[in-house]
Amino acid sequence: MASNSVIKPKTQAGKRALARREEKVIENTKSCLLIRGGNTSEAIGSCLKDLYSLKKPHALMLKRRNPILPFEEISFVEKMSRKYDCSLFAFASHSKKRPNNLVLGRLFNYQLLDMIEFGVEGYQPLCTFPVAKVPVGTKPCLSFQGEEFDSDPTLMAIKNLLLDMFQGPRVEKIRLQGIEHLIQFSYCDGQILVRSYRILLKSSGSKIPRVELFEMGPRFGLRLRRHKVATPEQFKQARRQPKVATIKKIKNIVPDDGLGNRLGRVHVGRQELDKLQTRKVKALKRPREDFNAADGKKIKKRRLSDNKKQKNKG
Amino acid sequence: HAMSVLATSVPPTFDLGLLLINNPNPLDPASTRGPELEPYLAAVARENAQSLLSEIWQRLPAERVEDAVVAPLPPPSTPLPREKPPPKPKPPSRWEEFARLKSIRRNKKEQAVWDEATGEWRPRWGYGRADPSKEWLLEVPASADPNEDQFGRLKKEKKERVAKNELQRLKNISRNMRLGGTLPALSAGGGGATSSSKELKRALVVAKRSDASVGQFSAKVGGEKVGHLQGRRRHFLPNTGSLTAERGIQEQVLKELAARRTDPLNTERAVNRLQQQREQSGDAANAVNGRRRPQKKKTAGKVSTEGGKSRRQNARDSKSRKYKKAAASGRANQKMKSLMKSKTLGKRK
Fold this sequence. Notes:
heterodimer, A: 314 residues, alpha+beta, ten-stranded mixed β-sheet, two-stranded antiparallel sheet, 7 helices, elongated, B: mainly alpha, flat, Brix (chain A), Rpf2 (chain A), Ribosome production factor 2 homolog (chain A), nucleus (chain A)
């Protein structure tokens, strides 16, 4: 809570900004920070701009050049992520050793979680495709083609990162006519081919519409260079979910059997019947041998008057 | 319908929460070469999109919201990491605890309040409220001093109330911190784990003893309790003091210097060293590239024996050995005495 901090915000806007940044049960959509390195080629600079267009409004492009090396010193990215409250980043640079370099990464709690360095090949910008673009903020469909995305550990990590990067806003309901965008990632000859299409739904004979695709751009291939993947422990910590209060189910009791009766089963433990405490009845006091004589006959009940008679007799 | 472009030996899996389709079939290597690549990829994408949309249309129940048809998305099944850790539950404040014990509930107040003075409904807070501090006329109560400034009194009381509230708030925060929480983010750009007072004290102790004088000359922080200096290593005798003691030390030094001349070479050590070096050079000859490692040449200033230690090192060794022996025997005696005296066993400083 913003009121939990020592320094209280002075304006409502400040209060709202702090409330937006604090830890939440259901989080905001992850924002992407786009950074240009010390030197960029036309291609990679344009690629970064296209990425910005794809990720709008959950993206922020830094204006100035930042001659940093993420794989050597990540502190700049972490600092910027904290300043602008972004947990994804894309860093574009160009050098002779690493031409058209793109580093995609993400952070957890403003600290680096993982990052992958790609070489961008065969890039064609968004503007070269004459197809109309999708509206800003559309949730894209994602398609991963290739068995390596499920078997190779590095590619699995890459897939996870790309999912996080391109999943768009998290929604509870989606308008079926609004499924307009598809991004396809195919693994082919050591490259991840990225293609982006506009979906047009045409009526087919059945209820399910027929899909037609038009390549919208941008188009590029990503060749894996270096990577820094989170350890399983780090990933596990990042995955920790908040405890959601669940309604505790009471066992054994049926609140309503349909007729307004509340039923339950009473489990009585093991009982020793001869040691039960019952109401004392005189008839049950007599020992058992009285009832069965040696000859099997029942012994007659003796009365006081009998005793008297016996006495008189004897 | 067109024939399937892919060999769909493995059916694709879906994660509808992310609108994701995973197609584990490999691409046809023949089609991925040359100019056929893009149409092939487009065809593959079209099939994937069709499968995904069929899945969505079939699996998810369609609802109508106003004039749009929507489908509720399930939560994603692919594990994705969070942006920040989940929020820690805030411990209740002093008032909240009290209210819980006494089962005091919050009464929801109406926003509009009847204002007698103006004869109209006014909001309780915000714009247009009946603010007592904005009154143009205030009655002087019978019990009050007639010369007292009533407006000033109201202002002062309000200031005091605000200050008290702020104090309570800070007390709550410090209480939470003491009970094991972390200090909440001070600003949007700041934050991060800050230590409790215990941790800070520990850090101070460690930092202080990390210099050569083990914190003897470090400035004392307010409220810090300085104990005895731990780990004092280098002891220097005072510059002034007993002249006879100093004379004795100087004479000892001269004696040792004179004694060194008689035994410049520790023959035993020299022989061992030479043997070691010969073994090592033998290994170098058997190395992969067959090149011998060049021997380290000693500087011209030092006088050294072949394969042996420098004279100074020898002297140091002998001295240390001698002192160690003397010290050890002395210490052993002391230890025996102390052990017999005291009950504690084990290391003693």
